[in-house]
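Structural prep section.
Before we set up the soaks we want a predicted structure of the protein with magnesium ion in place, mainly to decide which crystallisation condition to try first. Input record follows.
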Amino acid sequence: MLSEQLIPTEAAMPAYAEKLLPQIKSLNMVGLSGPLGAGKTTLVRGLLRAMGYGGAVKSPTYGLVESYKVAELEVAHFDLYRLADPDELEFIGFSDYIGDGNLCLIEWPEKGGKWTAGLDLMITLTPSDGGRKISIESDLQP
Ligand code: ADP
Ligand code: MG
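Run finished without errors. Recording the tokens verbatim:
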């Protein structure tokens, strides 16, 4: 099922992330799709805040991944935009991030090839009317 919502401003993103969190925190691999500037990192920041993480959440664009330990959860935030070959993920130990108690939030999952073929959920962000339309392929509603 597809849930779709327009989030009109950046300031409204944290509240949306808070509603979304219960649906995704027990998942393993969540994709965030959408063009540059769509708000993918902003949503990840909101999710980490909602989990209780108080530190800075920066875009992992230049390092591919930023890791966070929040309560009992290990969160890995990937940005695969600069990935030239999906098999680079083998060398950064991608498979070590996938496992019980780990949540991987993956920007540009379409660049990951077979490594990201098993997404549990895809979140698609689209600029719309100055805000962002957020679509979720899931059986659940935020
Ligand atoms: P991405 O990670 O998809 O490249 P970012 O999260 O870095 O995008 O966000 C890009 C810009 O979009 C930021 O300047 C942010 O202020 C803005 N933005 C994020 N969410 C919204 C929203 N719901 N409505 C309007 N602007 C937003
Ligand atoms: Mg980003």
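Observations: The mean pLDDT is 93.
Flagged for discussion at group meeting.
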